[in-house]
Design brief:
The chain is mainly α and about 120 residues long. It has five helices and no strands. It has one domain. The radius of gyration is 16 Å and the shape is elongated.
Length: about 120
Amino acid sequence: MSLKDNLGLILLILGFITCIFYVVFGQVTVRKLRKKPETKDHLGFGYVSGWDITNVAQILLMPKWMNDKLKESPLSFLHANYDLLYKHTTKFDLILARVFYSLMLITVFYGITGSIRLF
């Protein structure tokens, strides 16, 4: 196998694992947050169906100082409410969010840099 094939295979495997974590995080954490009346309307603005899964994971991954900056911005309605979500999530939910979103960022970065390098 050539270098292109190996890089493509690694990217495909990373993408598949990211998709699995996306579904698991959505079913375990975001589904629980959607059912609670306190958090139902504070999951951020959804551009498309399922965007709130990514939005919640992003907010739970960011450090508190960055979330405080987002709260003060004029576009704060686009993001989920960090304080409320943090209060209603468990340690397992936080770990799952961090693993999922970090893996998604790695996959996207690797895919973009790999495609630039290969072409």
